[in-house]
Amino acid sequence: IIRLTQHPLQRVDPVMALWVLPVPLIDCLVLMLRRLRQGRSPFSADHDHFHYLMREAGFGPFCVAITLSSVSVLYWLLVHLALTNGVAPVFVFASFVGLCLFWYWLTASRERAVGFLRTMGQFWRRPVSNLDQRASDDTSI
After folding, report:
1. Which of 3, 14, 111, 138 is 20 to 30 A from 105, comparing alpha carbons?
2. Predicted confidence (pLDDT) at residue 57 exceeds the cutoff of 70
3. Using CA atoms, how far apart are residues 112 and 75, in angstroms rounded to an integer?
4. Please, are residues 123 and 58 in contact by the beta-carbon 8 Å criterion?
5. Which DSSP string do the residues of 22-45 spell out, in sequence order?
6. pTM for the full predicted model
């Protein structure tokens, strides 16, 4: 990433480096800052990472992996489109900082973060119909 953004013949803006893997990067930055503010080592282990919160909110392992990957790709595409359409890099950087601040606020309360993720997860879950419910209740095959 650094080589791509620093090569004189490349047209990759350095701010794009932040958006290659934004979800894990934001998660790590927010957790490290929170641990430092709590007087702990920024490298101490805990279960406050994004994927743990998603699991607590009811997402399965496959859904967590697909969601995090999809969100990262979506953010990268949006930022790439913004930069190629003339949006100033300072605004792209400001949106990254804004997303970090939002995630810091949201995860300050575990209950708020898990509730938010549960609400967001409802968009991806298919409602169970009466036929599906009866089929799952029937144990005789």
Report:
1. 14
2. yes
3. 23
4. no
5. HHHHHHHHHHHHHHHHTTS-TT--
6. 0.76
Give the tokens for residue 90. Answer: 């300072």
Tokens standing for residue 55: 């699991």
Joined together, the tokens standing for residue 44 give 């101490």
Measured at the CA of 26, the angle between CA 68 and CA 92, to 5 degrees, comes to 100
Q: Please name the residue that has the structure tokens 């810091």.
A: 104
d(CA 2, CA 20): 11
Q: Which residue has the tokens 């101490």?
A: 44
Cα dihedral angle (100, 70, 75, 47), rounded to 10 degrees? Answer: 10
Contact of 12 with 5, CB cutoff 8 Å = yes
* Residue pLDDT, tens place only, 96-136: 999 999 999 999 999 999 999 999 888 765 544 444 444 44
Q: In residues, how long is the chain? A: 141
Query: Token pair of 99, please?
Result: 């997303």
- Cα-based distances in Å from 125 to 12, 14, 60, 120, 122: 37, 37, 11, 9, 5
Which tokens sit at 50? Answer: 């994004």
